[in-house]
Amino acid sequence: MANDLKNLLDRVERVDRSLASELRQQISTLARRREFGLNFEKHKPETVELYGRTVRAGDKVRLLNPRGQHGPREDSRTWRVKTITKAKAGHQARLQDLEGDDEQTAPLDELVVIADFRDPIYPGLRSTGSIRRGGDKPHHVVINAENFHALETMLFTSQGAVDAIYIDPPYNSGAKDWKYNNDYVDGEDAYRHSKWLSFMERRLKLARKLLNPTNSVLIVTIDEKEYLRLGLLLEQTFPEANIQMVSSVINPSGSQRPLGFWRTDEYIFFVAIGSAVPSSWVTDMTKEAGGPAQRRAIWNSLRRRGAGNLRVDRPGCFYPIYVRDGSIVAIGSPLSPQEQPGDEPDVPGATAMYPIKEDGTQGRYECNPKTAEELRLKGYLRLKVHRGEPSIQYLRKSEIQRLATGELVSRGQNEQGYLEIDWGAEVARQVKPKSAWNMPSHDADQNGSRINRLLMPDRKFPYPKSLYAVEDALRFFVGDKPDALILDFFAGSGTTAHAVMRLNKQDSGCRRSISVTNNEVSAAEQRELLAKMLRPGDPDWEALGICEYITKPRLTAAITGHTSTGAPIKGDYKSIDEFPMSDGLEENVEFFTLTYEDPRVVAADLGFEAIAPLLWMHAGAIGEQIIARTDTYAVVDSYGVLFAIDAAGPFAKAVESKNSVRVAFIVTDDEKQFQRVSGLLPSQVETVRLYESYLRTFEINTGKE
Ligand SMILES: C[S@@+](CC[C@H](N)C(=O)[O-])C[C@H]1O[C@@H](n2cnc3c(N)ncnc32)[C@H](O)[C@@H]1O
């Protein structure tokens, strides 16, 4: 480059000496200026070993070390699988060295597939279980995966749809706390900072595409080892965002730093995108709020949303509530099993409202007609119309108690007959949060490790966050978004999902989370498992990985209220709301493992089952999933799939008859047919062409930079 410039200047000099001299001066001034920004070795390409993934012809693979062998790979070359043949001793692969001419044959079970981040992947999801206690609320999702691939997958399911990302990435402590290109990074590694930056940058660039550009937040925790570099990286990756760093005490007794101040805090970067700003809260974060002091929703839906929310679950709670001119005028009696809405007695001029769910199924009210009538007479029941949709709301016992203590203040019954209520002035006083947090509830040991021990007495996870620290950080940005989508792609023990569930409990919200974590074991566990002649990919090894052994059991315990050993959880949540952990949380969660599909199989419409969960996630992870292909079409609560274009007419009718359908997936190779069918569907339904949009998403968005 410098040489090219010199030649050019020489040429200029031959024509105009003074111009050349001026140019030389300017160039030398520029050259003295230090380049601004973060420069680091990009470490391309990043690869990851996909244990358990079936080896196919065309794959890149490496040879596994013999069982029981520690240390670096005996053969670290990457090979391409040319052919696979069946032999008596099992399947054999013919391999070609990718960088040399060598060829060899190796048994399939001695190979591991390599994913090079520059190559496209075609992801699918395989369900590995679910917990359902949340009625018709959307599902939280946990994905066992390499997060780079999970983020790519989310480009298909959730591009621009994420309201908040909370991540607690490896801090690069030098103590083998993370892996780059399948190897632990230790303090001796001269490239450890640039490796960490390359690793983070690739993932943050994808995360950026998932965040809602008009209003969302990225929250990243970090400590003194990488906070300076991370700050610059965030500035470069999110140039238009408003970035602020908070210092947060997480270990009040302090950990020793022989050469410096004892470390009590860590840092939290808030990257606010679009119009996102932190909301006010009952404390400025320099101290815990005194007393019960929080604004939650005062009125709650009388139609039950948690477990057991169907008419059949409690027939006595399925009855008409009569409304006229915005007022509730009478409470009817439960219908007999043979009766249907419309069979109720008439109340002149009034309409009968039943607990009907968004998808048209018959739900039930929280209480029987007698209690409803008592509530009505006291002004504790009201008709609420939100975006044209009427619903019945009521005051729960806790809110009625708050009225008695003065936390809630009533201005009396209004014309519609219900109480006009607000939070009492002192109780609800809200303040702007400050940037130095000193919250005893954010103690990582007390409210991270200890809570995990209560939930999983038989298991250990290093360095979880305080549950309340995550909850507080998120609340500033999604506290007023009861339907927010929150992502954590370094989920570890699942603290973020747990915190989102608690936020929902506080205001009857329907937020949902997506948690991604790999199934790594620690460096020490790895040594033990190798000594037992195990290898990654073996069921006994994978069962001890973080996702399977920690994340899933922790969230299962949080929801069910029972520990990983089956006993009711001891202890109470101790935060702005206190209740026994054994109550559990009324939420739904679905667990998945990311799979790697063959695009030819998907394009030929032979791989529907593998990508089926992606369609369900795209439609909001709510209600039932369409898990298998049919000959015509299938429609569930939130989406539909048209498999045979001939069935477009009945498909459109089925979609129209369900008000709740948000997305229609149309399987066709023909863009014109796709447009024609899209035209038949209600305008609010998003249409997606399969498998074109799926395949295109991954062809475009590969890790090539
Ligand atoms: C510091 S921990 C997060 C702890 C979490 N905040 C909690 O409270 O439990 C980081 C987690 O990210 C996971 N992880 C690291 N690299 C990953 C990768 N490339 N893909 C997926 N997960 C990864 C690790 O397994 C680890 O559990």
Terminal residue distance: 22 Å
CATH first level of the largest domain: Alpha Beta
- Give the helix/strand class: alpha/beta
As a percent range, the share of strand residues is 15-25%
Number of helices: 18
Bound molecules: S-adenosylmethionine
What does this entry look like structurally?
The protein is an alpha/beta fold and 705 residues long. The protein folds into 5 domains: 31 residues; 70 residues, SH3 type barrels (Roll), CATH 2.30.30; 292 residues, Vaccinia Virus protein VP39 (Rossmann fold, 3-Layer(aba) Sandwich); 124 residues, no CATH class; 90 residues, no CATH class. The chain is 28% helix and 25% strand. A 10-stranded mixed beta sheet has the order 7-28-8-25-24-9-12-14-13-23, sandwiched between helices. β3 and β4 form a beta hairpin. The chain starts with a helix and ends in a 5-residue tail after the last helix. The model has no long low-confidence stretch (mean pLDDT 91). Bound molecules: S-adenosylmethionine. The site of S-adenosylmethionine (SAM) has 17 residues, from β25. S-adenosylmethionine binds next to β25.
List the helices and strands and how they pair.
Layout: H1 2-15, H2 17-32, E1 47-50, E2 60-63, E3 79-87, E4 90-97, E5 103-107, E6 111-116, E7 123-132, E8 139-144, H3 147-157, E9 164-167, E10 175-180, E11 183-186, H4 192-210, E12 215-222, H5 227-237, E13 242-249, E14 265-274, E15 300-301, E16 321-324, E17 327-331, E18 351-353, H6 369-378, E19 381-386, E20 389-394, H7 397-405, E21 408-413, E22 419-423, E23 436-437, H8 444-455, H9 467-478, E24 485-488, H10 495-507, E25 512-517, H11 523-531, H12 539-542, H13 546-560, E26 572-574, E27 578-580, E28 588-596, H14 599-603, H15 608-618, E29 633-635, E30 639-642, H16 648-657, E31 663-667, H17 671-680, E32 686-690, H18 692-700
Parallel strand pairs: 8-25, 8-28, 9-12, 9-24, 13-23, 24-25, 30-31, 31-32
Antiparallel strand pairs: 1-6, 2-3, 2-6, 3-4, 4-5, 7-28, 10-11, 12-14, 13-14, 15-20, 16-17, 16-18, 19-20, 21-22, 26-27, 29-30
S-adenosylmethionine is lined by residues 146-147, 168, 170, 178, 463-465, 490, 492-493, 495, 516-518, 520, 546.
